[in-house]
Amino acid sequence: MKNRILFFIAIFMAWSSIAQTITVCKTCTVSTIQSAITQAKDFDTIIIKKGTYKEHAIIVDKPLTIIGEKYPVIDGELKGEIITIISDDVTVDGLFIINVGTSYTEDYAAIRVKNSKNFVIQNLVLEKLFFGIYIEKSRDGKVYHNKIIGDAVEEYNSGNGIQLWYSKNVEIEHNFVQHVRDGIYLEFSDDCLIKNNVSTLNVRYGLHFMFSNDDIYQDNTFENNGAGVAVMFSKRIKMYNNLFKENWGTASYGMLLKEINDAEIIGNTFEDNTIGINIEGSNRIIYKHNNFSNNGWAIKVKGACYTNTFTENNFLYNSFDIAYNSNVNDNIFDKNFWSNYTGYDLDKNGIGDIPFRPVKLFSYIVNRTPETIILLRSMFIDIIDFSEKVSPVFTPDDLLDNNPLIKKLTW
Amino acid sequence: MLKILKYSFFDLMRSRWSYVYFAFYLLLGVVLLFLNNDLSKAVITLMNVIIVLVPLIGTIFGVMYYYNSQEFTELLLAQPIKRSSIFLGQYLGVALSLSMSLILGLGIPFVFYGLFESSAIWDFSLLLITGTFLTLIFTALAFNIALSNENKIKGFGYAILLWLFLAVIYDGLFLMTLIMFEDYPLDKLSLIGTMLNPIDLSRTLILLKLDISALLGYTGAVFKQFFGTSFGLVVSFFMLTVWVILPVLRIVFKAKKKDF
Question: Could you tell me if A199 lies within 8 Å of chain B, comparing CB atoms?
Fold first, then answer.
C-alpha cells in the first residue's frame, strides 16, 4: 500500500512537471517574449519563431528553455539591457540579439546571467553590443557556439564580448568574438575552461584574466588584437596549444603575464607578434614545446621573474629571442632550438657543443634607447653583439642555454 | 655614350673578374637555398651579404676599372666625343655588368628553387633591387674618388676607407649619438641619419619586410608613419635614387673640369 502511494505520488509529480511548450510569434496569442515568460511555468520551453521582437529588459526568473527558430531578431533599440537571467537551469539557444544600449554608469549586456547555476547559453549571434554575455556570481554553466561581433573603436566606451565576474566552473567553447574591447574577460573567476574560441580584432585583449585562479585555456586563436592575452594576478593557469598571431603595435603582446605564479604554458604558437610574451613579476612558470616564430621579441623579461623554466621550445627567426632589462638571472633555459645558434655538434648527439647566449647586447641597448632599433641587423651591431658574447658585461652572464638543440623540435 | 657603354660592358663581360663575381653569387645562392632547409634564413643571410659585400665590390671594382682603363680613356679624349658621355658610358658599363652578375648569380638558383611559386618573391626582388641600387651608388662613388685622385694607391685607400666608413663606422657614430642624446626625442634624427647613408637606407628597406614586427615596437608617431605605411618604402626608394643621381652628376661635373 505504501509502495502504491509512493508510486502515485511519483506519477503525479512526473505529470505536473512535464514541460509545456509556449510558442511566440508575431501573429500568435503570445506575441512578446516577456509575456511568454510571465505565462510559463517552471521548466517550460518557449519557442520563438522567426521575426523581429523589439524588446528589452526581459527578465527570466524561472528555469526555462528559450529556443529561437531560424534566428529570431531581438532588437533592444539601444535602450538598455536585453535579457537578464536570474534563475537556475535556464537555457537560451539560437537568438539574434542586436542594439544593446550603451551606458557609462551601468554595464548593459545583451544577455546577463546573475546568481544562477546550470545555465546554458548557446548558438547566439550578438551584434551592435556594449557587453555581450555577462555572467556574474554564477556557476556551473556553459557558453557554446556564440558569435559576437561588436563595433568597438575606443576602450572607454566599449564593453567586453564574454565577461565572467565572480563565477566558477564555466565552460566557454567554440565562440567567435570580434571587434569588442576584451574578447573574453575573467575577473575573480576560478576553475573555468576556455576552449576552441577565436578572438580577433579586439581593441584591447583577446582574452583577459584578472584575479582568476586554476583556469585552463586551450586551442584558442588570438589574432590581431591590441594584445593577444593578458594574464594578470592569477595563479595556476594552464595555457595549452593556443595560437597567438599578428598582435602588432607599440604595446602589443602575444601574451602579457603580470604577477602570475605556477602557470603552465605548453604547446602554444607565437607568430608575427611585436612581443611574443611579455613577462613581469611571474614565478615558477613552465614553458615547454612552444613555437616562437618571426616575432620582434620572442620573450621580453621585465624583472622580478624567478625560477621559470624554458625547455624544448623553438625560437625561429625572431628579431630578438630574449630581452632582459637587468643582468640578474634566475631562470633556466635548457634544450631549446634557436635558429640564431651558430655552434657545432662534433659528437653528433643532437646537442650543440657550445652554449648559446639568447640575450644580445643590442636588445639591452634598444631597451635603453628605443630609437636605436633602426640599427637592427647592421654590421656594427653584429660586431658589438659578438664582443658581448665573448665576454658578457651588460647582459646576464649566467643566462645560457647549455644544451641548445641542433635540429628544430617537432612533437 | 651608348657605344662606349657597350664597349665597357663587353670588355668587362670578357674579363675574369666578372665571372668570378658571378660564380660567387651563383655558389652562394645554391648553397643557401639547397643546403639550407629554410627560406627565411636564406633571405636574412643574403641580406647581410648584399649589404656588406655589394658596396665593397662596387667600390673596388669601380676604382680598379677606372685606373686600368686610364690610357684608353685618354685615347678616347683625343676623339671628338663629349667628355660626359665617355665617363658616363664607362660608369654605366661597370655598374651594369656588376648588377647583371648579381642579378643572374642570385636569380638563377632562385628560379630553379621554384621562387615564382613561393611567397618570398617580394622579399627576394626587394633584395635584388636594393643590391642593384647599391652597385649603382658605390660604383659612382668609386668613380668620383678615382677622378679626384691621380695616385692609384691613394685612390684605393680612399675607396676602402669610404666603404669602411659607410658600412661600419657610420653606424657606430650613429649609435653613439643616439645614446648620448637619449633624453631628447630622437625619431626624426634617427630617420634622417638613416637617409644619409645608402647602406643604412638599404638595410632599413629590407627590415621593412623582414623585421616589421620588431620595428613597430617603438612608440613614436614618426616611426609609426614611416614603418607602418608604404610611406617608408616610397621615401627610401626616392632617397636611393637621389643617392645615385648626386654622385653621377659629380662625375659629369668633375670630368668636364678635369685636366688630363
Answer: no
Q: Residue range A15-43: average pLDDT?
A: 84
A chain contacts of residue B223, beta-carbon cutoff 8 Å: 371
Q: How far A179 CA sits from the closest chain B CA (Å)?
A: 21
Number of domains present in the structure of chain B: 1
Residues of A in contact with B210 (CB under 8 A): 377
pLDDT value at residue A12 = 53
**ipTM for this prediction:** 0.85
8 Å CB contact of A371 and B186: yes
Q: Which residue of B has its CA nearest to A271?
A: B213
CB contact under 8 A, A251 and B219: yes
Domain with B7 in it? 2-257
Query: What percentage of residues in chain A have a pLDDT greater than 70?
Result: 95
Per-residue HEC secondary structure of chain A comes to CHHHHHHHHHHHHHHHCCCCEEEECCCCCCCCHHHHHHHCCCCCEEEECCCEECCCCEEECCCCEEEECCCCEEECCCCCCCEEECCCCCEEECCEEECCCCCCCCCCEEEEEECCECCEEECCEEECCCEEEEEECCECCEEECCEEECCCCCCCCCCCCEEEECCECCEEECCEEECCCCCEEEECCECCEEECCEEECCCCEEEEEECCCCCEEECCEEECCCEEEEEEEEECCEEECCEEECCCCCCCEEEEEEEEECCEEECCEEECCCEEEEEECCECCEEECCEEECCCEEEEECCCCCCCEEECCEEECCCEEEEECCCCCCCEEECCEECCCCCCCCCCCCECCCCECCECHHHHHHHHCHHHHHHCCCHHHHHHHHHHHHCCCCCCCCCCECCCECCCCCC
